[in-house]
Amino acid sequence: MTIFSRIYKIIRSEVSNVFPPNVPGSKIPQEEPATGTPTVNIPATEDPVLAQYYANLEVPYGSDIRTVRSGWKKLLKRYHPDLHSDSPEKQQIAEELVKQLNHAYRELEKRLEPQNSR
Asked: In the chain, where are the structural domains located?
């Protein structure tokens, strides 16, 4: 997956959460089926903000903290800005992606950690 396809996925998930379908009980598609990547559907009963965080980390909705951490680390290794230092444009995009990944991980960590401490 290239850095540009990752940006497309993030933008697609944000637009889908802002403009959900008007049909009650419908699912919000996150990917076009023609792209060759699996389609990620978010049922309308799930929290769209949390669903976006899970989608940004490319883990299934409702995953435990270990799975979230694993997905976060995997994506950080793939999109770290130091790996794209040959092009300033790619490095800037990678920095934005890493910021979004870190934000999604922190938010999910806040919500999932209290469940583990009970």
From this structure: 1-11+47-118
Phi, psi of 28 (to 5 degrees): -95, 115
Helices assigned H by DSSP within the chain:
3-18, 48-56, 65-79, 88-116
- pTM (2 d.p.): 0.59
Q: How far apart are CA 61 and CA 55, in angstroms?
A: 8
The pair of structure tokens assigned to 103 is: 């934000």
Residue entry with tokens 């770290």: 80
CATH number given to 1-11+47-118: 1.10.287
25-61 pLDDT, tens per residue?
Answer: 444 444 444 444 444 554 556 788 889 999 999 999 9
Neighbours of 82 (CB within 10 A): 7
